[in-house]
Structures are given as structure tokens and as C-alpha cells.
Amino acid sequence: MTGSGGEPLVAVYADLGPVARKAVRADDGFVDGADVDGGTVDTADVVGLVVRSESRVDRPFIARFPRLSFVIRAGSGTENLDLVELRRRGVRLVRNPVVSAESVAELALAGLVSLARRVPIAAALLQRGEWRKSDFVGEPLPDLAVTIWGAGPVGRAVARRLTPECRSVHFAQWPSLPSDAPAIAVEPALAASDAHILCLPSRPSTRGWFGPRRLDRVRDARPYLLNLGRFDVVDVAAAVRRLADDQLRGLFIDPVDAHHLPELRAATAVADRDLNLLATPHLGAQRRDVLTRLGEWALDTARLLVKETRDDQAPHRSPAAHLEATAADWRDDARS
What we know:
With 336 residues, the protein is of the alpha/beta class. 39% of the residues lie in helices and 14% in strands.
């Protein structure tokens, strides 16, 4: 069994590409999460975790690590983390919502172009041996008025990417919206926008945000709906029904993790025709350069945090302060 000697270890449950995998294998301070789960690593020696969205860091999982000091979320979302338990245990959470933002924005542009050109339907027909070119006349992006929901790093990156391409790009009015962001009130946005791009986190206040009520309010505009945030921000079954009823021009759902597959399959099984629907397995950050940068950041940050844990020289910070530490916060801490 690896460990049992008291030296602090970091368990890496995130696949951050070949560069990070090689670095993990070469550094005795890191262990693969699969080895931890397989029982070849003493969990009592694990002081840190590196995770992405596919890892469920709930209370039973956290309880396996009595010395857990920090969790590094390689990305931004926290819906897979038991924040209450992390706070109770005084475990520090470090996130990096910035590195992947431009990659997600690139995917948003690709998704909007694909829907506007009706690529999902055209591709499905071709794969069945049907050639119907004349049925597919797309609409140009410069004709589209776009509303972005969420003005965090991803939302702002999406705005930068789409502004040169589209007729207009605004952020839906939101309590935390920066004062200098181009804004549109919610009701006009729902009534008239050609495309809604969701870059919202999963929170109690945002789950099901685009559900039947708001889908009814966008019916007259027949917009494109693109979810680049979190899966549960959209009522997927209701959105697919609206798409099948021709109340949406197209639907793109990127943040599909493995545990969402039953819900996605059930939602799409009711369609009796090809739909202008694009669903992808959470590809926003899945770009080689982004994974390399995320991996370097996560492993470098882990090394600094292990040093802090080992030396116990850092000033005391309350569990609540630790919980919402971000990548920028940590860099500032490390320099001080």
C-alpha cells in the first residue's frame, strides 16, 4: 500500500490530459484517484484532492480522508461538491473559473453556427443515406440578437467572441451584473432575443431557470437556446418538447455528465422526427491547450498547498474564508 508513512499525498481524480498524467506519475506526492479507490493508497495520508465536474465529492466521500485539508476544483462549478461538509471540516476549496472560459466561448460560437445552419438534422439525414441539401438554408449570425445569462468569466468570454459576429449581444439583467456590461431587461430579452446563451452556475436559484414558464415566454421569438452553464439550469424535457413543437429554432446542451444520460435519453425519446438538437458531453474545457494549463495550475497549486500543510506556517483563516478561495486568492496568498 502506498503511503502509511505520514507523508502528505494529493489524490488526483481529474483527467487533465497527458501532460498532467505524466507529471502525476513522476511525482511521489501525487497518487491517482483510481489507486485510492482500489485500496492501494492509505487514505489517511491524503491531504488534498484534485477534481473536475465528474467527481461526486459528497459527505461519505469526504469522510474517507481524515486529514483532508484542501480540494482543488479544476474549473468553476461546485454542484458536485458538498460545500456544507467542506465548510464544516474546514477544508479549503480552490477553483479556477478563468482558464477554460475562452474555450467554452469558442464552443458557444460553434454551437450557435451549427444550430443556425441546422447541422444536427442535416448530419442525421446524411448518416441515414438521405441527401436533402435544398432543405437546409441557414440564417446568418449578423441577423441574430443574442442574450447571455450570466456575466462571470465564461459569460464575458462568450460576449467577446459573439459581439463581432452577431447583430447585438447583451447580458440579461442580473443582480450581480457589472454596471459597465451591456444589459437588457429580462422581459424584453425573453420577448425578442433570437438566441439565449446560458452561462449560469448551478444554484438553488438557477436550477430549472429555463423551465416551462420562461419557455412559454420566448415562444413568439422562437429563439435558439444554448446551455453552456450547468445541466440543471434548463428543464431539458420541457425544452425538447418545445423544440419538437417548433417553439424553439434549436437547442444546444453542452454540460452533459455521465449521470445526466438517463434524463437526456428520456427527454429525447419522445421526439418522432429529427430535431435541431446538439448535445455534447461537457466539452467546454475539453481542448488540449486548456487541459494542459488547467493541469499545470492544479498541480502547482497542490504543491503549494501541501507545503503550507506540511510547514503549517500560513496565517490562520476561518473555514468560511477557506471555502470560497479562488485561484486568484491563492496566488495572492502564495506571494505574501
